[in-house]
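Weekly modeling sync, notes
Attendees: S.R. (lead), two postdocs, one rotation student

Agenda item 3: backlog of single-chain predictions. S.R. asked that every request posted to the team notebook include the full sequence so nobody has to chase files. The rotation student volunteered to paste the first one in as an example of the format we agreed on. Action items at the bottom.

Example entry:
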Amino acid sequence: MRTAKIVAASVVMAVALQSCTQRSEAQAPPAPAVTVATPLVREVQDWDEFTGRFEATQTIDVRARVGGYISGVHFRDGDYVRRGQLLFSLDARPAQAALASARASLAQATAQLSLARTNLTRSEGLLEAQAVSQAEVDANRGAVAQAQAAVAAANAAIRARQLDVEFTRVTAPISGRVSDRRVDPGNLVGGGSSAADVLTTIVSSAPIYFVFDGSEAVLLKYQRQARQGAAPIQVRLQDEPDYARSGTLNFTDNAVDTASGVIRLRASIPNADGFLKPGMFGQARLAGSGTYRAMLVPDAAIATDQARRVVQVVAADGSVAPKPVQTGPLVDGLRVIRSGLASTDRVIIAGGQRIQAPGMKVQARVGQIRPVATPSTSPVTTAAPASTATFANSLSGD
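Predicted structure, as returned to the notebook:
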């Protein structure tokens, strides 16, 4: 009787365990859904990015070359002026009076020269008749030489006074954008030295320089690349999404700054419309290498595992496995994978946050990797031969 009760109890427990197991299996959550895609394979080019400022190729502080009263201003603030254009006029009457005095001095010196020559001719005739001494003839010759020197000095004084009259017209030494006037008509200004009053400033507008700092490693790389030709440079402003402005790298400084470890580099950028202004910030990129075939995945698909970068890959049986990868730069919003990934791997590009542990089973839905940002409409052009040679010589030190 007791044995029958034990058997009955065992049957009841087995039925209960089977019921719990079935209920547990029925309540198990389904495998999480993720989106997978194979890496996008395309030709890419690495770029080194830099931040810098635009600088004018020429900057001029306009000063008067003679002092005087400002009698007129002949430009509007902010105008584009051409070389030789009249900017300021000074009262020319003092300079004209000095010029008239110099001309009078020339007439006086010319008359003295004429008299000295007449005396010399007369004395030479009398010397033949032994009516005068040789000393008197020599004195007359000296007087002629002195009179000739006085005429030369008077002519030089006239040229100097003519320059003073010319310098009362302050003209633009270069073509470019003029600033506002610093003095108004009626003011007395000094001139003729570096300490003279600055009347205005002019900066050239086209082309314009883009100046930035690069590390020693960048310098070494581009010095070696310069043997095959200069790398193109592209620039964009802070509010521009694309690198739409292109130019050529035409200068590197002659020494690396030992304190910061960087070197100054400069590119020439066309600026025909004058939109770029000196002092603006910009972002530049230089081609760091030639084009090569690379695999790209979304940056969000890459996770950090301590010091490693990993992507989650789904196997054929639906299990997830992490793959360590070596990453490169961003290209059109996608991250270049240099190594660690095969072109046939199914990479999780969405839903990766649902993965709790390696080996977990997932439901994979097929997606597609597309570029996030549209490439710049400005083509990457190689530098002209002359610019290439200039840059190559600058880097190589030839």
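Discussion: group reviewed the output briefly. DSSP finds five helices and 23 strands in the chain.
Action items: rotation student to repeat for the remaining queue; S.R. to check formatting next week.
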